[in-house]
C-alpha cells in the first residue's frame, strides 16, 4: 500500500491461483455476465499502467460502453492508441505532487499514465486482467493468469509518483473517475487515520457512493498490532489480507544435518551441491547495524564465497541480497525477527536466497555461533499448491479496531494478498530495486494492496450479475457469505499468533464469491443513512458538508441519532467498563426466493458470556425486495477497560446463511 502525505497529506501504496482458490474456475455458471463483454468498468487509482501487457488485450470485447466519458491522456511515452476496448481510460494527476515536490523528473519517471513502479499494473490486472496463458515469474507460479472480473473494462488513474501520492491528486482523480462513469473504484493506498471529513479518500468515496459506485480500499500493511488500519469509513469496503494454498519452498540445509523450510522466488545459477561456508552477518561487520545487511556494512573478507544470514528489517528484503553480493557473498538467508514471527513472504532474490521464520532464524544464528566451521546450502523446490491450512491471516494485514469510529467494525473482509501473481511494469525488475536489471511480464508480490483489487473485481462481477444492487448491498453480500472456518470446522488462523483469528483481524471473514452472488438477504444503506451516522458521531454542518458537498445537510434537533442504528452487516458493541445493555437495530432486504429465516447468536469475552437476544427471532419473506427489521440486545457484566469479546449472529433459511460478526469492547 502506498503511504500518505493536504495537498501535502502524502499517501502510500498498500503492497494466478486465486480464481481457483476462490472457487471462480466455473465463473460462467456462477456469473453469467462474466464471459460476455461486460460493461462494468473498474477504476484503479495507483501508479498507472503498462498498457502493452496482454492482461489488457481487448480480443472479444464489444464497443466501449456508450456512457463512458473517460479518456486516454497522452504523455511523452504514452499515446492515446495505448487504450483499447479493454483498457478504456488512462489519466494522470500531479498538480498537488508538483506543488509540493517540484516538477516530475522525467529521467526517473514518466509524466504520463505509464506505470514505472509496477504496483498499478499489478493491482489493475488483479482486479480485471484478461486471461493470459503461459504466465509465470521466472518459472514460478506458471499457468493462466486472469483477474477476478476478466471481462470487465479497466480505467487507470495515476496518482502515485516516486515521492508518494498526494491527497489533492487522489481526491481530484476520484472526482474525475466518478464523472467518467466507473462502476467500481479500487484504491490500494492509504495513510494514517483522520476524521472522515479531513480524509481525502473518505471524502472522495462518499461522493462515489452517492453515485452508486462501489469503493474498496486496502486496510494497510501495519499489522499485526491492534488499531493499525486505515480507510475505515463505513461507506468504504476495507480489505485485509490472507494467504492462498500456493507456496514457493526453499529449504535450508545446515552442516549439522538440520533442515528448515523457507520461501524464495530466486531463479538463476544455483548454489554448489556441496555445502557452502555459512556466516551470520552480525559477526561479519564492524557496524552496529551489520546484522541487517545494510549497505556497506559487511566486511568482504568475512563473507566472500559464503552464505550470509541477514536479519529482516529496516532495509528492503531483496536489497540485503545486493549488499551480500557486493561484498562477495554466495547466497543469503533472510531471517525473521520477533517483528515478523513466522510469516514468510516470497521474494525474487538477486542471489540464491531464502526467507525463514523467527524460530528457524534463531536456530541458524545459534548454529553459526556455536559450530567452528558452519556450512549450509539452499534447495529451491519451485511451486507447490494444496498448502494447508489456507487461508491464514497475513501478519502484515492491518487490524481493527477502527480508531476513528470504534463502533464500526473494521476491516470488513479479507481476501488473497500473499504471493499474488499479476502483470508488471517493463520499467523495473521484480524486486523494484534500482539495481535489479531483470525484466518480467508478471510479478509475485504481497500486501493488502493485492487483496483490495480481488474484492474490487468481485464487486464488478456482482455489479454485472445484479445491476440494481447498491454499493452497500454488494458489500453486504460479500460479508454475510464470507467464511470464518476451514472445512474441518476450526477457525481461520492468524499467522501472527498461531491461534484463531478474530473479527478485528478478518472482519466478516474470507471472501467467498460463489456464495456472494446469491446471499439471500442484504443489509442496504443509503446516502441519507450515512448522513444520520455522521449526525450520530456529532459532526456539525460544516463537517457534514465537507463529505456530502450539500450545504443544506444538517442534523435535526428533534431527532435522536445512534451509531447503533447504521444498517451495517457487522456489530461492534461498545460496553461501558461497568457493563450493561447495548441495543442495535438492523433491517434486511430479501434478494432471494420467499422464505423464513431463524436466528442464532452468541458471543463471549474469553470464558465470560455476553447475552445476545434478538427480536423477533424469525423473519418471513413472501417476495423479493421485502424488508424486515430486528433489534439485538447485547448484555454483559463489567470488565476491565480494553477487554474484547467476539461472537456471531446468523440468520439461517432453507437455502441461505446470512452471518454477521460481533466484536465487543469495554471502554
UniProtKB/TrEMBL annotation:
<feature type="active site" description="Charge relay system">
    <location>
        <position position="46"/>
    </location>
</feature>
<dbReference type="InterPro" id="IPR045051">
    <property type="entry name" value="SBT"/>
</dbReference>
<dbReference type="Pfam" id="PF02225">
    <property type="entry name" value="PA"/>
</dbReference>
<feature type="domain" description="Subtilisin-like protease fibronectin type-III">
    <location>
        <begin position="566"/>
        <end position="663"/>
    </location>
</feature>
<protein>
    <recommendedName>
        <fullName>Subtilisin-like protease fibronectin type-III domain-containing protein</fullName>
    </recommendedName>
</protein>
<dbReference type="InterPro" id="IPR034197">
    <property type="entry name" value="Peptidases_S8_3"/>
</dbReference>
<dbReference type="Pfam" id="PF17766">
    <property type="entry name" value="fn3_6"/>
</dbReference>
<dbReference type="InterPro" id="IPR036852">
    <property type="entry name" value="Peptidase_S8/S53_dom_sf"/>
</dbReference>
<keyword id="KW-0378">Hydrolase</keyword>
<dbReference type="InterPro" id="IPR023828">
    <property type="entry name" value="Peptidase_S8_Ser-AS"/>
</dbReference>
<feature type="active site" description="Charge relay system">
    <location>
        <position position="119"/>
    </location>
</feature>
<keyword id="KW-0732">Signal</keyword>
<feature type="region of interest" description="Disordered">
    <location>
        <begin position="104"/>
        <end position="127"/>
    </location>
</feature>
<feature type="domain" description="PA">
    <location>
        <begin position="292"/>
        <end position="364"/>
    </location>
</feature>
<keyword id="KW-0720">Serine protease</keyword>
<dbReference type="InterPro" id="IPR046450">
    <property type="entry name" value="PA_dom_sf"/>
</dbReference>
<dbReference type="InterPro" id="IPR003137">
    <property type="entry name" value="PA_domain"/>
</dbReference>
<keyword id="KW-0645">Protease</keyword>
<dbReference type="Pfam" id="PF00082">
    <property type="entry name" value="Peptidase_S8"/>
</dbReference>
<feature type="compositionally biased region" description="Basic and acidic residues">
    <location>
        <begin position="106"/>
        <end position="120"/>
    </location>
</feature>
<dbReference type="InterPro" id="IPR000209">
    <property type="entry name" value="Peptidase_S8/S53_dom"/>
</dbReference>
<dbReference type="GO" id="GO:0004252">
    <property type="term" value="F:serine-type endopeptidase activity"/>
</dbReference>
<dbReference type="InterPro" id="IPR015500">
    <property type="entry name" value="Peptidase_S8_subtilisin-rel"/>
</dbReference>
<keyword id="KW-0325">Glycoprotein</keyword>
<dbReference type="InterPro" id="IPR041469">
    <property type="entry name" value="Subtilisin-like_FN3"/>
</dbReference>
<dbReference type="GO" id="GO:0006508">
    <property type="term" value="P:proteolysis"/>
</dbReference>
<feature type="active site" description="Charge relay system">
    <location>
        <position position="449"/>
    </location>
</feature>
<feature type="domain" description="Peptidase S8/S53">
    <location>
        <begin position="37"/>
        <end position="487"/>
    </location>
</feature>
<comment type="similarity">
    <text>Belongs to the peptidase S8 family.</text>
</comment>
Amino acid at each position: 500500500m502506498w503511504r500518505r502525505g493536504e495537498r501535502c497529506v502524502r499517501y502510500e501504496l498498500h503492497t494466478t491461483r486465486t480464481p481457483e482458490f476462490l472457487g471462480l474456475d466455473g465463473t460462467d455458471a456462477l456469473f453469467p455476465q462474466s464471459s460476455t463483454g461486460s460493461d462494468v468498468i473498474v477504476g484503479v487509482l495507483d501508479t498507472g499502467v503498462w498498457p502493452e501487457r496482454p492482461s489488457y488485450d481487448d480480443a472479444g470485447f464489444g464497443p466501449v460502453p456508450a456512457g463512458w466519458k473517460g479518456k486516454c491522456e497522452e504523455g511523452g511515452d504514452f499515446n492515446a492508441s495505448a487504450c483499447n476496448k479493454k483498457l478504456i481510460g488512462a489519466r494522470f494527476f500531479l498538480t498537488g505532487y508538483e506543488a509540493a515536490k517540484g516538477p516530475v523528473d522525467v529521467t526517473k519517471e514518466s509524466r504520463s499514465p505509464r506505470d514505472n513502479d509496477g504496483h498499478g499494473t499489478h493491482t489493475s490486472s488483479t482486479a480485471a486482467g484478461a486471461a493470459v496463458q503461459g504466465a509465470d515469474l521466472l518459472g514460478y507460479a506458471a499457468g493462466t493468469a486472469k483477474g477476478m472480473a476478466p471481462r470487465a473494462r479497466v480505467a487507470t488513474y495515476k496518482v502515485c509518483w516516486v515521492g508518494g501520492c498526494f491527497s489533492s491528486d487522489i481526491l481530484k482523480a476520484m472526482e474525475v473517475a466518478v464523472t467518467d462513469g466507473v462502476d467500481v473504484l479500487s484504491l490500494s493506498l492509504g495513510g494514517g487515520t483522520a476524521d472522515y471529513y479531513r480524509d481525502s479518500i473518505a471524502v472522495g468515496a462518499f461522493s462515489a457512493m452517492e453515485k452508486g459506485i462501489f469503493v474498496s480500499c486496502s486496510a494497510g500493511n501495519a499489522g499485526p498490532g491492534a488499531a493499525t488500519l486505515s480507510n475505515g469509513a463505513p461507506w468504504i469496503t476495507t480489505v485485509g489480507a490472507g494467504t492462498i494454498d500456493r507456496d514457493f519452498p526453499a529449504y535450508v540445509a545446515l552442516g549439522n544435518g538440520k533442515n528448515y523450510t523457507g520461501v524464495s522466488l530466486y531463479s538463476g545459477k544455483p548454489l554448489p551441491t556441496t555445502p557452502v561456508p555459512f556466516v551470520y552477518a552480525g559477526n561479519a561487520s564492524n557496524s552496529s547495524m551489520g546484522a541487517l545487511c545494510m549497505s556497506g556494512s559487511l566486511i568482504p573478507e568475512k563473507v566472500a564465497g559464503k552464505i550470509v544470514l541477514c536479519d529482516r528489517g529496516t532495509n528492503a528484503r531483496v536489497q540485503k541480497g545486493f549488499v551480500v553480493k557486493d561484498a562477495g557473498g554466495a547466497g543469503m538467508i533472510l531471517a525473521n525477527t520477533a517483528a515478523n514471527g513466522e510469516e514468510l513472504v516470497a521474494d525474487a532474490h538477486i542471489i540464491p536466497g531464502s526467507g525463514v521464520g523467527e524460530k528457524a532464524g534463531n536456530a541458524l544464528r545459534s548454529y553459526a555461533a556455536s559450530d567452528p566451521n558452519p556450512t549450509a546450502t539452499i534447495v529451491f523446490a519451485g511451486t507447490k499448491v494444496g498448502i494447508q491450512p489456507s487461508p491464514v491471516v497475513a501478519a502484515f494485514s492491518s487490524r481493527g479496531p477502527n480508531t476513528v469510529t470504534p463502533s464500526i467494525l473494521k476491516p470488513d473482509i479479507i481476501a488473497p494478498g500473499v504471493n499474488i501473481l499479476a502483470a508488471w511494469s517493463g520499467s523495473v525488475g521484480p524486486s523494484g530495486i534500482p539495481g535489479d536489471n531483470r525484466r518480467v511480464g508478471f510479478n509475485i508480490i504481497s500486501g493488502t494492496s493485492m487483496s483490495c483489487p480481488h474484492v474490487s473485481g468481485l464487486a464488478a462481477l456482482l455489479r454485472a450479475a445484479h445491476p440494481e444492487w447498491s454499493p452497500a448491498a454488494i458489500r453486504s453480500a460479500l460479508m454475510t457469505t464470507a467464511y470464518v472456518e476451514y472445512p474441518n470446522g476450526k477457525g481461520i488462523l492468524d499467522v501472527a499468533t498461531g491461534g484463531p483469528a478474530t473479527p478485528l483481524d478478518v472482519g466478516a471473514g474470507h471472501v467467498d464469491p460463489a456464495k456472494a452472488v446469491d446471499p439471500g438477504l442484504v443489509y442496504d444503506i443509503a446516502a441519507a443513512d450515512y448522513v444520520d451516522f455522521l449526525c450520530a458521531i456529532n459532526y456539525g454542518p460544516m463537517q457534514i458538508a465537507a463529505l456530502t458537498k450539500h450545504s443544506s445537510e444538517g442534523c435535526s434537533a428533534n431527532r435522536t441519532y445512534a451509531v447503533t442504528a447504521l444498517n451495517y452487516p457487522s456489530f461492534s458493541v461498545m460496553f461501558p467498563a461497568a457493563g450493561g445493555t447495548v441495543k442495535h437495530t438492523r433491517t434486511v432486504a430479501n434478494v432471494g426466493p420467499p422464505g423464513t429465516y431463524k436466528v442464532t447468536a452468541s458471543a463471549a469475552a474469553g470464558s465470560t458470556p455476553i447475552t445476545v437476544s434478538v427480536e423477533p427471532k424469525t423473519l418471513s419473506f413472501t417476495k423479493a425486495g421485502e424488508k424486515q427489521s430486528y433489534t439485538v440486545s447485547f448484555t454483559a457484566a463489567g470488565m476491565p477497560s480494553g477487554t474484547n469479546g467476539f461472537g456471531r449472529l446468523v440468520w439461517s433459511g432453507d437455502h441461505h446463511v446470512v452471518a454477521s460478526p460481533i466484536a465487543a469492547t469495554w471502554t
